[in-house]
Amino acid sequence: MAEHIDINELHWLLDIVQSIDVGVVVMDRDYNVEVWNSFMENHSGVGADKAARQSLFTLFPEIDQGWFTHKVETAVMLGTRAFTIWEQRPNLVHFKSYQPITGMADEMYQNVTILPLRSSTGKTDHVCLIIYDVTGVAVNKRQLESANTKLQELALRDGLTGLLNRRYWESCLEREFARHQRYDNPVSLVIFDIDHFKRVNDTYGHQTGDEVIRETARITSQLVRETDFAGRYGGEEFVVLLPGTTLDGAAQFAERLRSTIERQQLDYQGSPLTFTISLGVATLADDMAGYQALLERADKALYQSKEGGRNQVTVSR
Questions:
Q1: pTM assigned to the model
Q2: Which domains, from first to last, does the chain contain?
Q3: 36 pLDDT exceeds 80?
Q4: How many other CB atoms sit within 10 Å of the CB of residue 201?
């Protein structure tokens, strides 16, 4: 009677293994497959009869054999379970993802449990792999991380131009000032604004004025280096912070920016619309008590450009 119960229990266990929505693979100590459940059949396209007695590495050549055998042998030696998670290694085997939410994932993300199996003699002569499909969790986390990154980026940028907002670029200026005090590296600043911008708004309308601001920002973004910080000061006024740049280098950049914008033409109802900018350039000096002094010096140079007729660069020396 006891043997009959044991057989029934084994039958139930096999039914459970076949029906659960995880992959179950049992291998001998030579990594040859002995148990291969329906999850594995469905996702690999290989039936249990064909998988039986084949090496796991033959069935899945994509497995990093050195890494995997080290992981398994360590688990066997310690007699404890071992785990791999998708955040460290997206998957053990390459299965296609069929979940409807996974437009971001062509392959299944997997967590894997490595379970040493002891025989009645106490010897570990088999190892069980349990493969969990965690694609939904992984994709949701990736989407959340992507959304958070975009939100953080938006918090740093001006909505109209996409340039750095004042709060952020001013914090960059403060950081560069501290770095200059420590390492004495050159740091320069260019401040500029669009000439007669009120006239542009009054003549062509605020939408066209916004387009002029956007075009100015676009050209500025094209001319700056990856290490520079281009931002919007407010209204039609902009800044470019140039770390590692001398006053002469900043002046050359400012003149290149001025001439590029002067040549630019926007289309306004079939007619070309041109505009210019005035610029002030300054560099950090040892007599400056704080980063605000650099702003003030560049701003005074900008004022001189406007007083001198606009569409020009003034360098504060």
A1: 0.60
A2: 2-142 (3.30.450.20), 157-315 (3.30.70.270)
A3: yes
A4: 16
